[in-house]
Every structure is written in C-alpha cells, then in structure tokens.
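User: what does the whole thing look like in 3D?
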Amino acid sequence: MMNQMQWPMRLADYAYAQSLLIGWQIADHSKDTNWVYFEAALERYLQSQDHKQPLTARYHALLDSRDQFKNLFALGDGHISTYMIFIRILFDLGHTEAAIVQIETLLQKMTWLLEPLHEDLRIQINRPFLPLTHDFDQRPIQVDLGTWVQAAVIEALEIKRAPSSYFQNDLFLLKKVVMNPNHGAEMKRRERLLHLRLGLPTPAMAPAAIISRRKQLLDPNRAVWECLEQHAQLLG
Amino acid sequence: VSDSQRLLEQANAQLQAGQSEAAEWLYRAVLALDADNAEATHHLGQIEYDSGQTEPGLAHLQQAVALAPAVGAYRLALATALLELQRPLEAQEVLAAAPTPLETPAALELRQQLAQILDPNQTLTLETPAALNGSAPPAAAEMVVITLADALRVCAPADIHALATYVLLEQGDWHEKDALALLRRFIQPGMIAVDGGAQHGVYTLTLAHRLQGAGTVIALEPTARAANLLTQSVAENDLAAVVTVLPLGLAAQSGAAELSVYADRKPNSLDGQRCTELVKYLTLDELIKDAHWPATSRVDFLRLNVGELLPSILFTGREFFAAHSPLLMLRVTGGSLIPTALIDAMAMLKMTLYQIVPGLNALLAINVAQPLDQHQRNLFACRAECAKQLHERGLLINTAEMK
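Assistant: Here's the predicted 3D structure for the full assembly of 639 residues, as structure tokens:
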C-alpha cells in the first residue's frame, strides 16, 4: 500500500532531521506494535505546524495529537520519540508545568541522557522525532545523535524550569550541557553569568587574540560583559 | 516510650543546650531506628546546614518537609535555607505548597523578602503618603547598554545582580518571550499603546519599534531610576517621536505613596540596601484627564504590570474603559486560581480572559475555574469586538468554530 503519510516531507524542513530521514523511512517498523498509532499522532502534530491551515484547525490538530500521544502512553509505549514529541506538544500548548514533569520522568527512565556517552557508543532512534523545544529545529547534529538528544533534553529543562537562571543559581545542568558541542549560545552565557554573580572564576573563554572578527560582530554585548567582569574583579 | 522516642528527647535536650555535635549524633541514631522520623530529619538537616554541610543539610530539610508537609516550621526552615542559597523561586514554591498558609511573623517576613527579591519594584506600601526621608532619591548607578536580538538597545544598571541586566544579557530578550512574540505580531503602525509598570522598558521599546514612526507608546514608570534608564533607552533607539515616558504609576486612588526600591546591591549578595521613594500614582480614569496624556484616539493596547493592585485598578477605570476597548495584558501569579476580584472586574468590563498558546503564537480563552500553570506570568483580556478583530488577524483561536 502506498504510504500517504506526509511526515517524511514535512520533517525534511528541519535541519537536524535531514541526515536521519532515510533511516527512519527504511526502518522495519513491522515489529513495532505501536508504530501505526505513533505515525498517526506524529502526522497530526505536524498538521498543527502547517501555517497554511486555519488557526482553529491547527489548534484542533494540536489537541488531537496530544490525546493520541497520551493514548500511546496508555498502551505502554515508552519510546523516546513519544516522550520528546509529547513534551513538545505540552510546551506548545503552554502546559509548562506538565512538560517539565514529563522531562523529569524521561530523565528517570533514560538515565543515559544525563551521563557522558562512551565514544564508541552510537545512539540510534528508529522512529522519527522532534526536539522538545523549537530552538533545536534548525540545529544540525554535531558529533552524533546521542549527544544532540542529550543537549535537546537538558537545554529544555534548563530553559523552561524557571524564567531565568537568575532564579535558580544552579550550575548542575549547565555544566553538563556546555561540554556538549550541540549546546546553544545561551547556555554559555548562563554559565558565565552565574559564575560572575556567584563570585566564581569566570569560565575559560577563548583568548582574545584568537577571537575572530566575525565572532566579535556576533556578540554585540562584548563590551558590557567586559565592563561587568572588570567591575566584579575590582570589587572582588 | 520507644527507643527512638527516647533518643529523640535526648537529642532535643542536647540541641537546646547548644550541644549540636551531640545532638547530631543522637538524631542520626534516631534515624537509624526510625528512618521516617520527620522531627529528627528536620533537626539533623538544620544542624548540618548551619555547620556548612549545605548539600546534606538541604536534602534533610527537604526530606523533613516531604515527611511532614503540614508542619510549618519545617517548611519555613527549608524556604529560609533556599533563600540563603539564592534560590528564591524554589523558596517561594516551598511556602506556596503549604497545605494551610503560614501566617507566623517569620513566615510573613520571609514571604515579603521573597516578593521584594523576585519583583523588586512591585512592593508597594500604600500607607499614608509620607515625606521622602528628607533625602534625595538614590543616585543613578553606572549604566550599561545591552543590545537585544532584534537590535534594540536597552539601558540597564551596570550590576549583575539587577534582574533586568542579568536576563537581557542571558537571553538577548526579556524572559517573557511568548508574550513578546504575540505582541510583535499584534502591534501595527498607527496604534496607541500604554505600558503600565514599564520598568526597564523592553515592552515599551519593542512596541515603539514596531510602530515604524506612526503611533504612540505611553510608558508609565513610577520609580525615578527606572524611568531615567527608560528615557535614555528611548533616546538610544531614536524612538522619542513615538514614546512618552511619564514618571508615575497606576493605582486604585490618586496620590503619592512610598515605594520600596533597591538603592544599591552589593556584589554577590541579594541584600541590597533598600530605601523608599515617594512616587505619584493616578487611576486610569485620572490618567486620561491628566495634562500629560497625549493620546487623542483610541488606546489599542494596555499592559498592566501592577502586582496585586490589578483588580482595583480595573475597577477604578470605568471612564477609561468606556472610552477605550484595548487588548489588555495582565501580570498574574502562576500556580493558583485566578483571583475572584479579577474575574469580577472582567465581568464588569464585559471582557474575556485569554492565555497564549505558544506553539501557535495565538490567544485562547481560558477556563477561569482551573488553576493557572505554575509558569504562567501573563494573561490577556478584551471585549468581543476586539476579539473578533484578533481572530480575523489570526491572533485568536475561536473555540466556537471547533464546536
């Protein structure tokens, strides 16, 4: 039977997915008892992201997809793709509290997400997935999929658990994610700010001499950082 | 009396006598016999924490609260420790989770401290207006100009402990990204917006930037320091033609009141010296009669960042809302039910409350009987005619269509 599903085409718009799409399409899902339900739920979610559709229809699709993923959990499906997309839907709906509970559950079930991965270990995910937050949609995979997923999960928790690290003063997650090449620029800034605020040594930055001109242009607040760090040094 | 109970009494006696080492040993002995003894867990945690063993101390304080959620003293000790560790949000959550509100003087004082730290400019003491201590307002601190992701430049204190400075550097934007994303779509050239409680001005500047030279933003900021910084930000962004900064706040009655503000913050500490500043307040009805009121046509957007005064400000704005039908943006506290007074105010104004659906960047009517998500910071409200326009612009989900 011809596959009428749109997800391969829709996911092709996401940078992280491009190297994974073929694998997802040729994977043998015949032994995956929940695959049909998962695929339908994914399809429905992607319909909610279609800007050409009327807003009400998109909202309807978002609610349907949430319910379909809930049903997958009820069937005992604990696949990482199910968790990741379900958490994303909760964030999309503004149910942040529930989404954070789901991230914590995911971390309890899959403890490898917080641990350094052995260099020989290669994580594969046989179902298609979307990252927990839209920040990662266009972030290509650096090094390998396992570290990319780790960064996606840790960053989502770090960013969503409080409005700012100002309220957390907690370096636990940041220390894990800044070592990961898939982290976003905000994670480094969070680490730097917390060190500055807590009076800790500033994390090692690239020597000024090798900072490229382009990088300087990309950080329009370089002078502000220097001012605040000098201020802290004088007072320290 | 069981062995564990006897040991607990001995431990308490040692603690009262100031023999904390002996007490610690005895509390550990109690827990060896009765691992779920909340009292021993709490005291052990407090001893550890006080002696500098922060992590195990905090873990035991947390465990004690989990074992005996209704004991206010355990909760208060945990919240105090979290505040000392500069984790005010968690401290607030611990207090908020009490089965019955903690009303002891210590709890009230702690709650007030937390409110001041989490939202320094919202601690309004609406008592009889008093003179300004005979002293000048705090001198403006050294300033930095932070460039945001959309190239707006915001003047903020050169102080890493200032919330605005910290968050703007961290995120390249204000942390209420969903609300700002919606407003960036909503605001159009020619509109008139009022930002009540503008503070550092990210909302004012964002709205003004989108007006593209046509329209007005009226920014109300009662504290001199924030108003000065905002005025400088307006100049930095060349937005003086569309922004008017008025150094006043909104309240349920006009007059002056003392506002508690941070004069200065010491490095690596939240214990900034506090001072009071005499500020001017107007009701919404008096605002539109004020000589400074520049708007000549309808107000399209009104942001009310006014803390607990929100319902009373709405109730005392009848003439304002008779003349204007704006989209309202209301600062709320997440994790609880919407206050009855706010629901009553909405009914009086014939408005519906909405929340953002972030994934669709659109508004959705909320069920006021449900508690708000703990992370909810803002709600929106408007009348039917405004809702119709928002729906037509793809900014509001019409649930009636779904039915």
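In plain terms: Residues 3-16 of chain B form the longest helix (14 residues). Chain B touches chain A through 50 residues (CB under 8 Å).
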